[in-house]
Amino acid sequence: MTIAPVILKHYPRLNDVQREIVGHLDGPLLVIAGPGSGKTHSIVLRALNLLLLEKAQPRQIVLCTFTEKAALEMRDRLAAAARTVGYEGDLSELTVSTIHGLCNHILTQHRHRTDLGHNYETLDELTQLLFIFEHFDEIVGPAENGLFLGRWRTRWTAIEGARAYFDKITEELIEPERLRDATAPFIRAIGEAYLRYERALVEANRTDFAHLQRFVYDLLRDPATADAVTCDLRYILVDEYQDTNYIQEQLLLKLTEKSRNLCVVGDEDQSLYRFRGATVRNILEFPQRVPDARVLKLTTNYRSHRAIVERYDRWMASCDWSNPNGPWFRYDKTIRADTYTCHPEYPAVISIWGRDRRDEATRFADLVAFLKSGGVITDYSQVALLLHSVREEHSGPYLAALEAKGIPAFCPRARAYFGIPAVRDLVACFAVILGWHGDGRGQVAGAVADLARYVDDAIVALARRFAAPHPLAEALRRWAEEIAGLREGETLDLRLADYLYRLLALEPFRSAVRNENTARTLAIFSQLLNVFQTYYHYTVITHRNREALRLHFFNSFLRLLYDGGINEYEDPDQPLPKGHVQVMTIHQAKGLEFPVVVVGSLSNQLSSPKQVDRDLGPFYHRPPFEPASRITLFDRMRLHYVAFSRPQKLLVLTAHEKPKDHFAPIWEGLPQWPYVQKELLAAQRFEARERMPVKKSYSFTGDLKIYETCPRQYQFFREYDFTPSRSAVIFFGLLVHQAIEEIHRIALDGRLDTLDEHRIRELFDRTFRFLALTDVRPIGDAARAAAFEQVMNYFRQNQDVMRRVVQTEVDVSLEKEGYILQGKVDLLLGGDGKLELLDFKTSPRPKDSPELIAAYERQLCTYAHILERRHGRRVDRLLLYWTSEPRKEDALMVLPYDPARVEEAGRHFDEVVRRIQAREFAVTTPPEAAICQECDLRMLCRSENIIIGSD
């Protein structure tokens, strides 16, 4: 064990086990970390220790955790610790991400070794369902005897059911050929469907989250590519290891097969994600998987009052975790409170018992009001209510009770998006525009009928407030008539998203978007419209497609969203807003802490193991682990252990029916509210820790360029995250750019000699095919031929340069005082100790455009600023390459290097970010008319007299 002296100097209060973790240098390590034990702090300091002792360079270390938010927080904690100890290395090269993020990072470097093409899309939960819907006939096929794949009666139940099996097959690394040979007809059918699903993904250049990992796993199985992937990976540290699944375990073991430097940290007692495929056995069996692994246990809780820790620790130990066939289903450990912390005497664990659900909720609200009025808490956000589910039927009584007392609550994940007034109005408008009302919707039943009732109520409410001659009513009538009046062969050059931006120029939406939360809420609707347009293949509205579009949008797409529910917008910078009681699921609360935690759901029934595991279990690579008869109890214990370990000062358990029997050891004998008021008032005031927001990243093209074009465009499309109606990206430029990148990747692999015109044509055609699958406007044959000629011309004249390629499509970043500056450099060239930065332009070299050249120079100077601050050395040359020019001497432009300009570019970027963070989005000088004419916001700006003119 070796720890850099500077760490011991600045962090003298590390306990003995934390010191052992920080000082562990080589070999596998398992850390079992109880709640509030400082595990993330220990991981961060261990990574920093490896850097300070020069055991690794930043690029050779990977930190993984479970969520993107946790990864960003870990990144910032590492940067803060580095500043504290004075480490000046380039932390931007150290990977901090989720496991999915790590796989995506690996694929960006090695995608050309896989079946994925440029612009591959990773499907989320919604788009994965829509992808199967889009390819339903190909993947699932027709129903036989009224059932799809022999099991499901409707298309959507088949889509949702098949998705669960597809994910599990990939995550468990089941070979589908084994399923095809099974005796059970359903297993054979799902195996065949899975193969068809995989083929469809490859053809569409898409991947799901499970296959994202599978692509990397396959790279690691191939010795020829495994070395290329792992050659510069020396240490991998993984947090929340109890939430990993089988393929993730195999990935991590393969990534560290040579280095043996895998550190996994977690707590089997907090394993919550079985329903997402995670398995607690990964952490419980790690000592068997890696027999020489060192095992350390962090068991001191620095978060909670001693009485809380003692209660939940005894409760967790009360369950039978024994395993007659092997290691127990829980590590032997006792969690103890920090003995150096003062633990005042007051009832830190209490109960609320209500006569019924409403009375329970009222008593809960009384408690919150009492804590605030008595000064025990200073802000409502110090109280968190944790439930098994926050859907309206579970959270509703609590929210109503708080509202009755005038106490604000924040519950964004209740899937209540369609209950927001602005969204209800928007849906009503689209129903009127498309004619989805009355006879226009035909016969409806089931979930579609539920949506129809919602829409009818929304239309009535809208009509009462905005009847003719209101401009909204007149516009809706006119637009509906335009669509209904289309004749054979006629087309409206309008997408559904275009109507959204038209509506924003009218009341009530024009006023609504002045409220940031409402604007972000409507931005979600724009994103959903884009998903619909993509997966249902509707570009513009025509006479031919209007009927199908209407039915697909409402009967299929909105029905799916309305039935499943969508969460409201959450501000990532303020996930727990001040002045509001936080209402969330126990899963959402994982990793968080609050002075006061109230836990309901003590009488709720939790789900049992899924059918998918029962069906596919015989094909897994490992035999069953936990006995099926005990899984539900284990899951209940782990879920509520997480809940009970969130509070710092006060844990409150609530019920109106007898809690489940396994709660008896923690529930029985608790002092009850309201009979503890005097004791609670005697407690010290509960202070809340300030949560530091993570640093945002800003780039030249994605932020500075957009902001300087139009601050309002930036506000809507970057800050609020509206999705434009149409892509503004030019196909031609992307095609040339990406084909050249493919050539550079082969050059980096040392295989430049394998390239000739035939091979480059293959690369070019493949790039074209994948690009054509995106929403970018396509090009004709003549432009395609011209693009290929540019690529070939570049190849013929620059083979000597390609041997000097250091990196291509380089993601660079630099941590600044209040933000992270990011960029993507087309090409880094080296040799003879020099570093050159090159950017490609696919247009002809401009003759008389000094402003354009100045803009490109500023971009290159910004990248040079990043590289110089990171590497501590000057970029020798800034280069622009105009691929449209046939002669290299005309194509290559060398910009005079001026250190003062580089520094000025950095200062200019700082100033633009300052203005963005100060929310200076007012348009003082309108952009050029051509920019406004192409902008989706032009009608909103005209309605507010920001620009003048008619559409």
UniProtKB/TrEMBL annotation:
<comment type="similarity">
    <text>Belongs to the helicase family. UvrD subfamily.</text>
</comment>
<dbReference type="Pfam" id="PF00580">
    <property type="entry name" value="UvrD-helicase"/>
</dbReference>
<dbReference type="GO" id="GO:0000725">
    <property type="term" value="P:recombinational repair"/>
</dbReference>
<keyword id="KW-0547">Nucleotide-binding</keyword>
<keyword id="KW-0540">Nuclease</keyword>
<dbReference type="InterPro" id="IPR014017">
    <property type="entry name" value="DNA_helicase_UvrD-like_C"/>
</dbReference>
<keyword id="KW-0067">ATP-binding</keyword>
<dbReference type="Pfam" id="PF13361">
    <property type="entry name" value="UvrD_C"/>
</dbReference>
<dbReference type="GO" id="GO:0043138">
    <property type="term" value="F:3'-5' DNA helicase activity"/>
</dbReference>
<feature type="binding site">
    <location>
        <begin position="33"/>
        <end position="40"/>
    </location>
    <ligand>
        <name>ATP</name>
    </ligand>
</feature>
<keyword id="KW-0347">Helicase</keyword>
<dbReference type="GO" id="GO:0003677">
    <property type="term" value="F:DNA binding"/>
</dbReference>
<dbReference type="InterPro" id="IPR013986">
    <property type="entry name" value="DExx_box_DNA_helicase_dom_sf"/>
</dbReference>
<feature type="domain" description="UvrD-like helicase ATP-binding">
    <location>
        <begin position="12"/>
        <end position="305"/>
    </location>
</feature>
<dbReference type="GO" id="GO:0005524">
    <property type="term" value="F:ATP binding"/>
</dbReference>
<dbReference type="InterPro" id="IPR027417">
    <property type="entry name" value="P-loop_NTPase"/>
</dbReference>
<feature type="domain" description="UvrD-like helicase C-terminal">
    <location>
        <begin position="306"/>
        <end position="591"/>
    </location>
</feature>
<keyword id="KW-0269">Exonuclease</keyword>
<keyword id="KW-0238">DNA-binding</keyword>
<dbReference type="InterPro" id="IPR011604">
    <property type="entry name" value="PDDEXK-like_dom_sf"/>
</dbReference>
<dbReference type="GO" id="GO:0004527">
    <property type="term" value="F:exonuclease activity"/>
</dbReference>
<keyword id="KW-0227">DNA damage</keyword>
<dbReference type="InterPro" id="IPR014016">
    <property type="entry name" value="UvrD-like_ATP-bd"/>
</dbReference>
<protein>
    <recommendedName>
        <fullName>DNA 3'-5' helicase</fullName>
        <ecNumber>5.6.2.4</ecNumber>
    </recommendedName>
</protein>
<keyword id="KW-0234">DNA repair</keyword>
<dbReference type="GO" id="GO:0005829">
    <property type="term" value="C:cytosol"/>
</dbReference>
<dbReference type="Pfam" id="PF12705">
    <property type="entry name" value="PDDEXK_1"/>
</dbReference>
<dbReference type="GO" id="GO:0033202">
    <property type="term" value="C:DNA helicase complex"/>
</dbReference>
<dbReference type="InterPro" id="IPR038726">
    <property type="entry name" value="PDDEXK_AddAB-type"/>
</dbReference>
<keyword id="KW-0378">Hydrolase</keyword>
<keyword id="KW-0413">Isomerase</keyword>
<dbReference type="InterPro" id="IPR011335">
    <property type="entry name" value="Restrct_endonuc-II-like"/>
</dbReference>
<dbReference type="InterPro" id="IPR000212">
    <property type="entry name" value="DNA_helicase_UvrD/REP"/>
</dbReference>
